[in-house]
Design brief:
Length: 448
Protein backbone atom coordinates (compact mmCIF):
# COMPACT_ATOMS: atom_id res chain seq x y z
CA UNK A 1 0.00 0.00 0.00
CA UNK A 2 2.84 2.30 0.87
CA UNK A 3 4.51 1.66 -2.43
CA UNK A 4 1.26 2.26 -4.27
CA UNK A 5 0.71 5.49 -2.41
CA UNK A 6 4.25 6.54 -3.11
CA UNK A 7 3.76 5.92 -6.78
CA UNK A 8 0.70 8.13 -6.86
CA UNK A 9 2.22 10.86 -4.71
CA UNK A 10 2.71 14.30 -6.18
CA UNK A 11 6.02 14.76 -7.92
CA UNK A 12 6.49 11.07 -8.68
CA UNK A 13 7.64 10.26 -12.27
CA UNK A 14 4.80 9.33 -14.69
CA UNK A 15 4.81 5.82 -16.13
CA UNK A 16 6.22 5.55 -19.68
CA UNK A 17 3.65 5.95 -22.45
CA UNK A 18 3.19 3.38 -25.18
CA UNK A 19 4.76 4.49 -28.51
CA UNK A 20 1.59 4.67 -30.55
CA UNK A 21 0.47 7.01 -33.33
CA UNK A 22 -2.63 9.15 -33.17
CA UNK A 23 -4.70 6.32 -34.62
CA UNK A 24 -3.32 3.86 -32.06
CA UNK A 25 -1.01 2.02 -34.46
CA UNK A 26 2.55 1.35 -33.38
CA UNK A 27 5.08 3.34 -35.39
CA UNK A 28 7.17 0.28 -36.16
CA UNK A 29 4.14 -1.49 -37.58
CA UNK A 30 3.27 1.55 -39.66
CA UNK A 31 6.86 1.72 -40.92
CA UNK A 32 6.74 -1.94 -41.93
CA UNK A 33 3.56 -1.36 -43.92
CA UNK A 34 5.12 1.68 -45.61
CA UNK A 35 8.39 -0.07 -46.37
CA UNK A 36 7.28 -1.73 -49.69
CA UNK A 37 5.92 1.58 -50.96
CA UNK A 38 9.10 3.37 -49.91
CA UNK A 39 11.24 0.76 -51.66
CA UNK A 40 9.26 1.14 -54.85
CA UNK A 41 9.42 4.92 -54.58
CA UNK A 42 13.16 4.76 -54.13
CA UNK A 43 13.70 2.29 -56.98
CA UNK A 44 11.37 3.94 -59.49
CA UNK A 45 11.71 7.64 -58.60
CA UNK A 46 14.59 8.54 -56.29
CA UNK A 47 17.24 6.30 -57.89
CA UNK A 48 16.49 7.35 -61.54
CA UNK A 49 16.55 11.02 -60.54
CA UNK A 50 19.82 10.60 -58.66
CA UNK A 51 21.42 8.58 -61.44
CA UNK A 52 20.33 11.11 -64.09
CA UNK A 53 21.79 13.93 -62.00
CA UNK A 54 25.13 12.12 -61.65
CA UNK A 55 25.17 11.04 -65.32
CA UNK A 56 24.51 14.60 -66.48
CA UNK A 57 28.00 15.57 -65.23
CA UNK A 58 29.74 12.65 -66.97
CA UNK A 59 31.17 12.49 -70.47
CA UNK A 60 29.85 10.45 -73.36
CA UNK A 61 31.37 7.18 -72.14
CA UNK A 62 30.28 7.75 -68.55
CA UNK A 63 33.81 7.22 -67.18
CA UNK A 64 35.05 10.82 -67.15
CA UNK A 65 33.84 14.03 -65.54
CA UNK A 66 32.46 16.53 -68.04
CA UNK A 67 31.61 19.34 -65.63
CA UNK A 68 28.90 21.62 -66.93
CA UNK A 69 29.59 20.90 -70.60
CA UNK A 70 26.37 18.90 -70.95
CA UNK A 71 24.37 21.76 -69.43
CA UNK A 72 26.15 24.27 -71.63
CA UNK A 73 24.92 22.28 -74.65
CA UNK A 74 21.34 23.02 -73.59
CA UNK A 75 21.84 26.62 -74.68
CA UNK A 76 24.29 26.17 -77.55
CA UNK A 77 22.89 23.17 -79.46
CA UNK A 78 20.51 24.31 -82.23
CA UNK A 79 18.21 21.31 -81.83
CA UNK A 80 17.82 21.82 -78.08
CA UNK A 81 17.21 25.55 -78.50
CA UNK A 82 14.47 24.84 -81.05
CA UNK A 83 12.97 22.31 -78.66
CA UNK A 84 13.06 24.83 -75.82
CA UNK A 85 11.37 27.47 -77.97
CA UNK A 86 8.64 25.01 -78.98
CA UNK A 87 8.14 23.98 -75.35
CA UNK A 88 7.47 27.62 -74.50
CA UNK A 89 4.80 27.69 -77.23
CA UNK A 90 3.33 24.47 -75.87
CA UNK A 91 3.19 25.73 -72.28
CA UNK A 92 1.64 29.05 -73.28
CA UNK A 93 -0.95 27.95 -75.83
CA UNK A 94 -1.92 24.30 -75.27
CA UNK A 95 -3.11 24.60 -71.62
CA UNK A 96 -4.72 27.98 -72.30
CA UNK A 97 -6.72 26.82 -75.31
CA UNK A 98 -7.69 23.48 -73.74
CA UNK A 99 -8.81 25.16 -70.51
CA UNK A 100 -10.73 27.87 -72.38
CA UNK A 101 -12.53 25.30 -74.53
CA UNK A 102 -13.29 23.19 -71.46
CA UNK A 103 -14.78 26.24 -69.74
CA UNK A 104 -16.91 27.12 -72.76
CA UNK A 105 -18.15 23.55 -73.19
CA UNK A 106 -18.94 23.18 -69.48
CA UNK A 107 -20.91 26.43 -69.32
CA UNK A 108 -22.80 26.02 -72.61
CA UNK A 109 -23.86 22.42 -71.95
CA UNK A 110 -24.99 23.05 -68.39
CA UNK A 111 -28.61 23.80 -69.25
CA UNK A 112 -29.27 21.64 -72.31
CA UNK A 113 -30.83 18.21 -72.17
CA UNK A 114 -28.25 16.64 -74.45
CA UNK A 115 -25.36 18.15 -72.47
CA UNK A 116 -24.36 14.79 -71.01
CA UNK A 117 -24.15 13.19 -74.46
CA UNK A 118 -22.08 16.12 -75.73
CA UNK A 119 -19.69 15.86 -72.78
CA UNK A 120 -19.32 12.14 -73.42
CA UNK A 121 -18.35 12.78 -77.04
CA UNK A 122 -15.86 15.53 -76.10
CA UNK A 123 -14.33 13.41 -73.33
CA UNK A 124 -14.08 10.28 -75.53
CA UNK A 125 -10.61 11.15 -76.98
CA UNK A 126 -9.19 10.71 -73.47
CA UNK A 127 -9.82 6.98 -73.90
CA UNK A 128 -7.46 6.96 -76.91
CA UNK A 129 -3.73 6.54 -76.38
CA UNK A 130 -1.31 9.21 -77.55
CA UNK A 131 0.04 6.78 -80.12
CA UNK A 132 -3.39 6.15 -81.64
CA UNK A 133 -4.21 9.86 -81.59
CA UNK A 134 -0.95 10.61 -83.37
CA UNK A 135 -1.75 8.11 -86.13
CA UNK A 136 -5.26 9.56 -86.49
CA UNK A 137 -3.99 13.12 -86.87
CA UNK A 138 -1.18 12.08 -89.17
CA UNK A 139 -3.98 11.03 -91.55
CA UNK A 140 -6.10 14.11 -90.76
CA UNK A 141 -3.23 16.41 -91.76
CA UNK A 142 -2.37 14.51 -94.96
CA UNK A 143 -1.52 16.88 -97.79
CA UNK A 144 -3.78 15.12 -100.30
CA UNK A 145 -7.34 16.54 -99.97
CA UNK A 146 -8.70 13.12 -100.98
CA UNK A 147 -7.10 11.62 -97.83
CA UNK A 148 -6.62 14.39 -95.27
CA UNK A 149 -9.79 15.72 -93.64
CA UNK A 150 -8.20 19.07 -92.75
CA UNK A 151 -7.23 19.85 -96.35
CA UNK A 152 -10.49 18.46 -97.71
CA UNK A 153 -12.38 21.03 -95.62
CA UNK A 154 -9.89 23.80 -96.36
CA UNK A 155 -9.92 23.20 -100.12
CA UNK A 156 -13.73 23.03 -100.09
CA UNK A 157 -13.94 26.43 -98.40
CA UNK A 158 -11.30 27.89 -100.71
CA UNK A 159 -12.97 26.64 -103.88
CA UNK A 160 -16.29 28.11 -102.71
CA UNK A 161 -14.83 31.61 -103.00
CA UNK A 162 -12.05 31.10 -105.58
CA UNK A 163 -12.74 28.37 -108.09
CA UNK A 164 -9.64 26.47 -109.14
CA UNK A 165 -8.77 25.97 -112.78
CA UNK A 166 -10.09 22.83 -114.43
CA UNK A 167 -7.24 22.78 -116.98
CA UNK A 168 -3.97 22.97 -114.98
CA UNK A 169 -1.94 20.93 -117.48
CA UNK A 170 -3.47 22.06 -120.77
CA UNK A 171 -1.05 23.29 -123.44
CA UNK A 172 -0.93 23.74 -127.23
CA UNK A 173 -0.25 20.69 -129.34
CA UNK A 174 1.22 20.30 -132.79
CA UNK A 175 -0.08 22.59 -135.53
CA UNK A 176 -1.67 24.83 -132.92
CA UNK A 177 -2.03 28.55 -133.70
CA UNK A 178 -1.08 29.25 -130.08
CA UNK A 179 2.37 29.87 -128.64
CA UNK A 180 3.50 30.29 -125.01
CA UNK A 181 3.70 33.80 -123.52
CA UNK A 182 6.05 34.93 -120.76
CA UNK A 183 3.48 34.92 -117.92
CA UNK A 184 2.25 31.36 -118.50
CA UNK A 185 -0.52 32.39 -120.89
CA UNK A 186 -0.87 31.39 -124.56
CA UNK A 187 -1.16 33.82 -127.48
CA UNK A 188 -2.20 33.35 -131.09
CA UNK A 189 0.66 33.77 -133.54
CA UNK A 190 -1.42 35.87 -135.94
CA UNK A 191 -4.15 38.51 -135.38
CA UNK A 192 -7.72 37.30 -135.82
CA UNK A 193 -10.31 38.71 -138.22
CA UNK A 194 -14.02 39.22 -137.78
CA UNK A 195 -16.11 36.70 -139.70
CA UNK A 196 -13.34 34.06 -139.72
CA UNK A 197 -13.84 31.34 -137.05
CA UNK A 198 -10.76 30.66 -134.92
CA UNK A 199 -9.71 27.22 -133.72
CA UNK A 200 -7.75 27.05 -130.46
CA UNK A 201 -6.97 23.38 -129.80
CA UNK A 202 -5.23 22.30 -126.60
CA UNK A 203 -4.02 19.00 -125.23
CA UNK A 204 -2.80 17.75 -121.85
CA UNK A 205 -6.04 17.15 -119.97
CA UNK A 206 -7.29 13.58 -119.70
CA UNK A 207 -10.88 13.15 -120.89
CA UNK A 208 -11.95 11.87 -117.47
CA UNK A 209 -10.53 15.05 -115.89
CA UNK A 210 -12.62 17.42 -117.96
CA UNK A 211 -15.25 19.48 -116.09
CA UNK A 212 -18.74 18.07 -115.81
CA UNK A 213 -20.16 20.97 -117.83
CA UNK A 214 -18.03 20.08 -120.87
CA UNK A 215 -19.96 19.07 -123.97
CA UNK A 216 -18.95 17.70 -127.35
CA UNK A 217 -16.88 20.29 -129.17
CA UNK A 218 -18.57 22.06 -132.06
CA UNK A 219 -17.03 24.27 -134.79
CA UNK A 220 -18.03 27.90 -134.27
CA UNK A 221 -20.25 29.44 -136.94
CA UNK A 222 -19.03 32.69 -138.54
CA UNK A 223 -20.83 35.88 -137.55
CA UNK A 224 -20.48 39.17 -139.46
CA UNK A 225 -18.58 41.81 -137.48
CA UNK A 226 -17.67 39.38 -134.68
CA UNK A 227 -14.82 37.05 -133.87
CA UNK A 228 -15.98 33.52 -133.16
CA UNK A 229 -14.02 30.42 -132.33
CA UNK A 230 -13.73 27.11 -130.52
CA UNK A 231 -11.32 25.89 -127.88
CA UNK A 232 -11.37 22.20 -127.13
CA UNK A 233 -9.40 19.15 -126.03
CA UNK A 234 -7.84 18.04 -129.32
CA UNK A 235 -7.41 14.43 -128.31
CA UNK A 236 -9.26 11.25 -129.25
CA UNK A 237 -8.54 7.92 -127.56
CA UNK A 238 -7.03 5.34 -129.88
CA UNK A 239 -3.85 5.43 -131.91
CA UNK A 240 -4.20 7.38 -135.12
CA UNK A 241 -7.85 8.27 -134.43
CA UNK A 242 -9.16 11.79 -134.95
CA UNK A 243 -8.06 14.84 -136.89
CA UNK A 244 -5.60 17.32 -135.41
CA UNK A 245 -6.71 20.95 -135.50
CA UNK A 246 -10.40 20.19 -136.01
CA UNK A 247 -13.09 19.14 -133.49
CA UNK A 248 -13.93 15.42 -133.68
CA UNK A 249 -17.28 13.95 -132.54
CA UNK A 250 -15.80 12.44 -129.36
CA UNK A 251 -13.76 15.47 -128.31
CA UNK A 252 -14.94 17.87 -125.58
CA UNK A 253 -14.93 21.64 -125.45
CA UNK A 254 -13.09 23.56 -122.75
CA UNK A 255 -16.16 24.82 -120.92
CA UNK A 256 -15.41 27.98 -118.93
CA UNK A 257 -12.12 28.78 -120.69
CA UNK A 258 -11.49 32.54 -120.64
CA UNK A 259 -10.38 34.18 -123.91
CA UNK A 260 -9.08 37.76 -124.16
CA UNK A 261 -8.50 39.95 -127.22
CA UNK A 262 -5.28 41.95 -126.83
CA UNK A 263 -4.16 45.02 -128.82
CA UNK A 264 -0.94 46.86 -127.98
CA UNK A 265 -0.74 45.02 -124.68
CA UNK A 266 -4.27 46.01 -123.59
CA UNK A 267 -7.33 43.77 -123.29
CA UNK A 268 -10.04 45.18 -125.58
CA UNK A 269 -12.57 42.34 -125.25
CA UNK A 270 -13.04 39.05 -123.44
CA UNK A 271 -15.36 36.05 -123.48
CA UNK A 272 -15.91 32.73 -121.74
CA UNK A 273 -16.23 29.50 -123.69
CA UNK A 274 -19.56 27.68 -123.60
CA UNK A 275 -19.96 24.01 -122.79
CA UNK A 276 -19.06 23.02 -126.35
CA UNK A 277 -15.99 25.29 -126.34
CA UNK A 278 -17.41 27.97 -128.62
CA UNK A 279 -17.00 31.67 -127.85
CA UNK A 280 -17.90 35.01 -129.44
CA UNK A 281 -16.00 38.30 -129.20
CA UNK A 282 -17.33 41.72 -130.30
CA UNK A 283 -16.06 43.75 -133.25
CA UNK A 284 -13.38 45.34 -131.03
CA UNK A 285 -11.47 42.05 -131.23
CA UNK A 286 -10.95 42.44 -135.00
CA UNK A 287 -7.21 42.56 -135.67
CA UNK A 288 -6.26 41.60 -132.11
CA UNK A 289 -4.27 38.69 -130.78
CA UNK A 290 -6.24 36.18 -128.74
CA UNK A 291 -4.84 35.27 -125.36
CA UNK A 292 -5.71 32.41 -123.03
CA UNK A 293 -4.75 33.88 -119.61
CA UNK A 294 -2.54 31.96 -117.22
CA UNK A 295 -5.47 31.73 -114.80
CA UNK A 296 -6.96 29.06 -117.05
CA UNK A 297 -4.00 26.81 -116.35
CA UNK A 298 -3.20 27.50 -112.70
CA UNK A 299 -2.57 24.42 -110.62
CA UNK A 300 -5.54 23.34 -108.53
CA UNK A 301 -5.42 24.56 -104.93
CA UNK A 302 -4.12 21.70 -102.83
CA UNK A 303 -4.66 23.11 -99.34
CA UNK A 304 -2.18 23.94 -96.61
CA UNK A 305 0.98 22.08 -95.77
CA UNK A 306 -0.14 21.32 -92.22
CA UNK A 307 2.93 19.25 -91.44
CA UNK A 308 5.39 21.63 -93.09
CA UNK A 309 8.01 23.56 -91.10
CA UNK A 310 5.81 26.60 -90.44
CA UNK A 311 2.58 24.89 -89.32
CA UNK A 312 3.68 21.58 -87.81
CA UNK A 313 3.86 22.82 -84.20
CA UNK A 314 0.40 24.48 -84.22
CA UNK A 315 -0.98 21.36 -85.92
CA UNK A 316 0.38 19.05 -83.22
CA UNK A 317 -0.87 21.42 -80.50
CA UNK A 318 -4.31 21.22 -82.12
CA UNK A 319 -4.30 17.45 -81.79
CA UNK A 320 -3.32 17.77 -78.12
CA UNK A 321 -6.19 20.19 -77.48
CA UNK A 322 -8.57 17.73 -79.18
CA UNK A 323 -7.52 15.08 -76.66
CA UNK A 324 -7.42 17.14 -73.46
CA UNK A 325 -10.27 19.63 -73.85
CA UNK A 326 -12.62 16.92 -72.57
CA UNK A 327 -10.49 16.47 -69.44
CA UNK A 328 -10.66 20.21 -68.74
CA UNK A 329 -14.40 20.27 -69.43
CA UNK A 330 -15.18 17.47 -66.94
CA UNK A 331 -13.18 19.06 -64.10
CA UNK A 332 -14.61 22.52 -64.76
CA UNK A 333 -18.15 21.11 -64.98
CA UNK A 334 -17.65 19.48 -61.56
CA UNK A 335 -16.52 22.82 -60.16
CA UNK A 336 -19.42 24.59 -61.84
CA UNK A 337 -21.89 22.25 -60.15
CA UNK A 338 -20.73 23.52 -56.73
CA UNK A 339 -21.09 27.22 -57.62
CA UNK A 340 -23.98 28.80 -55.63
CA UNK A 341 -26.83 29.56 -58.01
CA UNK A 342 -28.04 32.36 -55.72
CA UNK A 343 -25.09 34.51 -56.71
CA UNK A 344 -25.84 34.15 -60.42
CA UNK A 345 -29.54 34.85 -59.92
CA UNK A 346 -28.73 37.88 -57.79
CA UNK A 347 -26.50 39.22 -60.57
CA UNK A 348 -29.28 38.72 -63.12
CA UNK A 349 -31.79 40.46 -60.86
CA UNK A 350 -29.40 43.40 -60.58
CA UNK A 351 -29.52 43.73 -64.37
CA UNK A 352 -26.42 41.83 -65.49
CA UNK A 353 -26.64 40.07 -68.84
CA UNK A 354 -25.37 36.54 -69.42
CA UNK A 355 -21.94 37.68 -70.58
CA UNK A 356 -21.51 39.84 -67.48
CA UNK A 357 -22.66 37.00 -65.23
CA UNK A 358 -20.14 34.71 -66.91
CA UNK A 359 -17.27 37.19 -66.73
CA UNK A 360 -17.92 38.75 -63.33
CA UNK A 361 -19.44 35.84 -61.37
CA UNK A 362 -18.84 32.43 -62.96
CA UNK A 363 -15.19 32.81 -63.94
CA UNK A 364 -14.03 34.30 -60.58
CA UNK A 365 -15.82 31.56 -58.65
CA UNK A 366 -14.21 28.93 -60.90
CA UNK A 367 -10.74 30.48 -60.64
CA UNK A 368 -9.36 27.77 -58.28
CA UNK A 369 -10.59 24.99 -60.58
CA UNK A 370 -9.29 26.75 -63.69
CA UNK A 371 -5.88 27.17 -62.02
CA UNK A 372 -5.69 23.47 -61.12
CA UNK A 373 -6.65 22.44 -64.67
CA UNK A 374 -4.20 24.85 -66.29
CA UNK A 375 -1.31 23.84 -64.00
CA UNK A 376 -2.02 20.13 -64.54
CA UNK A 377 -1.95 20.62 -68.30
CA UNK A 378 1.26 22.64 -68.05
CA UNK A 379 2.97 19.74 -66.30
CA UNK A 380 1.58 17.40 -68.93
CA UNK A 381 2.76 19.41 -71.95
CA UNK A 382 6.28 19.69 -70.57
CA UNK A 383 6.49 15.92 -70.99
CA UNK A 384 4.75 15.66 -74.38
CA UNK A 385 6.56 13.24 -76.68
CA UNK A 386 4.23 10.78 -78.41
CA UNK A 387 2.22 13.21 -80.51
CA UNK A 388 5.27 15.06 -81.84
CA UNK A 389 7.13 11.84 -82.59
CA UNK A 390 4.19 10.28 -84.49
CA UNK A 391 2.58 13.25 -86.25
CA UNK A 392 5.60 15.26 -87.40
CA UNK A 393 7.21 13.68 -90.50
CA UNK A 394 10.95 13.27 -90.68
CA UNK A 395 11.33 16.32 -92.93
CA UNK A 396 9.83 18.68 -90.33
CA UNK A 397 10.47 16.84 -87.06
CA UNK A 398 13.38 19.18 -86.30
CA UNK A 399 10.98 22.14 -86.54
CA UNK A 400 8.42 20.46 -84.24
CA UNK A 401 11.03 19.26 -81.76
CA UNK A 402 10.33 19.45 -77.99
CA UNK A 403 12.53 18.73 -74.98
CA UNK A 404 11.14 15.25 -74.31
CA UNK A 405 11.66 14.24 -77.94
CA UNK A 406 15.15 15.77 -77.98
CA UNK A 407 15.95 13.78 -74.83
CA UNK A 408 14.99 10.59 -76.68
CA UNK A 409 16.97 11.54 -79.76
CA UNK A 410 20.11 12.50 -77.83
CA UNK A 411 19.96 9.39 -75.67
CA UNK A 412 19.19 6.77 -78.32
CA UNK A 413 19.64 8.13 -81.86
CA UNK A 414 22.77 10.22 -81.27
CA UNK A 415 24.24 8.20 -78.36
CA UNK A 416 24.84 11.20 -76.09
CA UNK A 417 23.54 10.00 -72.71
CA UNK A 418 25.22 12.83 -70.82
CA UNK A 419 23.31 15.53 -72.72
CA UNK A 420 20.12 13.44 -72.51
CA UNK A 421 20.51 13.26 -68.71
CA UNK A 422 21.07 17.01 -68.57
CA UNK A 423 17.84 17.54 -70.51
CA UNK A 424 16.03 15.23 -68.07
CA UNK A 425 17.32 17.20 -65.08
CA UNK A 426 16.39 20.46 -66.80
CA UNK A 427 12.85 19.17 -67.39
CA UNK A 428 12.62 18.20 -63.74
CA UNK A 429 13.67 21.70 -62.71
CA UNK A 430 10.98 23.15 -64.99
CA UNK A 431 8.28 20.89 -63.52
CA UNK A 432 9.15 21.43 -59.83
CA UNK A 433 7.95 25.09 -59.60
CA UNK A 434 4.66 24.21 -61.29
CA UNK A 435 4.15 21.23 -58.98
CA UNK A 436 5.04 23.35 -55.95
CA UNK A 437 2.46 25.95 -56.99
CA UNK A 438 -0.16 23.24 -57.41
CA UNK A 439 0.56 21.64 -54.02
CA UNK A 440 0.57 25.02 -52.30
CA UNK A 441 -2.80 25.87 -53.77
CA UNK A 442 -4.27 22.52 -52.75
CA UNK A 443 -3.06 23.01 -49.17
CA UNK A 444 -4.61 26.44 -49.11
CA UNK A 445 -7.90 24.99 -50.27
CA UNK A 446 -7.76 22.33 -47.55
CA UNK A 447 -7.27 24.99 -44.84
CA UNK A 448 -10.39 26.75 -46.04
Amino acid sequence: MASAGAAGAPGAPAPPRSRRSVTGTRRTVAALFLLPALLLLGALVVYPIGYSLVRSFADRSGDGFAGIDNYRALFTDDGIRTALKNNVLWVVFAPTVATALGLVFAVLTERVRWGTAFKLVVFMPMAISMLAAGIIFRLVYDQDPDKGVANAVWVGVHDTFAQSSAFPKAHPGRRSPLEPAEDGAFLTRQPVRAGDPVFLPLVGVAPDRMPGSAEKAAPAAPEPGKVTGTTWQDFTRGKGVGTLGAPDPSELGYAGMRIEAVKDGKVVASATAAGDGTFTLPAAADGALLRLPAGNFAEAYNGLDWLGPSLVTPAVIGSYVWMWAGFAMVLIAAGLASVPRELMEAARVDGANEWQVFRRVTVPLLAPVLAVVAVTLMINVLKVFDLVFIIAPGSSQDDANVLALELYRKGFSEDQPGIASAIAVFLLLLVIPVMWFNVRRLRREVRR
